[in-house]
Amino acid sequence: MKDADIMWFRDPFPHFHEDGDFQLACDYYGGNPIDLNNLANTGFTYVKSNKKTTKFYKFWFDSRLTYPGLHDQDVFNKIKFDPFIRHIGLKIRFLDTTFFGGFCEPSRDFDKVCTMHANCCGGLENKVHDIRIMLQDWQNYTQMLGNQTAMVRPVSWTVPQLCKIVI
What we know:
The chain has helices at 51-63, 72-79, 83-88, 124-146, and strands at residues 6-8, 22-28, 39-47, 92-94, 100-102, 115-117. With 167 residues, it is α/β, with parallel strands linked by helices.
């Protein structure tokens, strides 16, 4: 499952955790894939189809009644600590922003980034503006790679720009 505002640059499959049932991107990643304190972003998930994940999705769906008015991501960030998760044996893994970056916490390594999410952005115009810049950054990077005579220089994202305000 993924949001429409995620740009794919490389195959992400080599960076998924073999032991994870439910894996997801982060707005902010603390460096440990099993740390529930990572701030999850449910816009990009990789889920193994099994009994544990089926039970989890039902629990997550039902939990919206416990937390009325909250977005599914906010509900997830509440229920990820629930004892039910441990009871069913669900292995949640958070994806490293080195490979799965976003506007909240951009990947710093163009040679490793697989996806970039236009997260932490309010307003469609702001998001479209910064996605265009992100794609231009990527195009500049790939052109630099193809130009054997280009000076090797560090490359970095020039986004976020209009998406600097966290919503």
